[in-house]
Design brief:
15% strand; Rossmann fold
C-alpha cells in the first residue's frame, strides 16, 4: 500500500510508487475529509494511509501490508477494534533493534538524516519500545533480509499457509 507524506521525495523516490507526495494543504484537506485510515505527524512531516485504498483491497479479498511507525500502527489497531473486516484482517508486527546504540549506528550508516534528526528519532524510539506489548508479534531486528523473511513467515502463518 502506497502511503502519503508531506516530506519531499528523496533521491530515487517516485510519486505514486514510494509515496504519494502531497503538499501540506492537500494533506490537511484530506484529513478534514476523513480520507485517512491513520495519519500522524512524525519528525515534522505528515504521513498517512488512505482508508479507501485499504478497504477496497480488503473488500476485493486481497491482503494489505502497512508499514507504519508505532503511532500509526496503534491508530490502526484502535480502528480495527470497531471494524469487523479490518479487525479480522489485522495482524500486527513490531521489529526493534536490540539496543538504542544499534539503532543509532544503523541510522548513521544509512546516511539519509542529519545528526539532529537522528537524535530526534532515537528519542522517539526510546518511548516507542514500551509499546511492543501491544503487537501480535515482536522481533529483535537482524538484517533487512532476515526481518523480511520473518514478516513473510508471520503472514503465511496468519493465513494458515504453513
Amino acid at each position: 500500500m502506497v502511503t502519503c507524506t508531506t516530506r519531499a521525495p528523496r533521491e530515487g523516490e517516485t510519486d505514486g510508487v514510494d509515496y504519494h507526495f502531497l503538499g501540506e494543504e492537500e494533506f490537511g484537506r484530506r484529513v478534514e475529509a476523513g480520507e485517512f485510515l491513520e495519519q500522524a505527524k512524525v519528525y515534522g512531516r505528515r504521513y498517512g494511509t488512505l482508508k479507501k485504498d485499504v478497504l477496497e483491497q480488503l473488500a476485493a479479498g486481497g491482503d494489505v501490508l502497512l508499514v507504519n511507525d508505532v503511532q500509526g500502527a496503534l491508530a490502526v489497531q484502535e480502528l480495527a477494534a470497531g471494524d469487523v473486516r479490518l479487525g479480522e484482517a489485522l495482524v500486527s508486527v513490531y521489529i526493534v533493534t536490540e539496543t538504542i546504540d544499534e539503532l543509532r549506528a544503523r541510522l548513521v550508516s544509512r546516511g539519509k538524516d542529519a545528526l539532529d534528526v537522528i537524535g530526534e528519532r532515537l528519542a522517539v524510539a526510546e518511548s516507542e519500545i514500551a509499546e511492543a506489548g501491544h503487537f501480535d508479534h515482536v522481533r529483535v531486528s537482524g538484517s533487512m533480509e532476515e526481518d523480511w523473511q520473518w514478516v513473510q513467515e508471520v503472514y503465511r502463518e496468519s493465513r494458515g499457509d504453513e
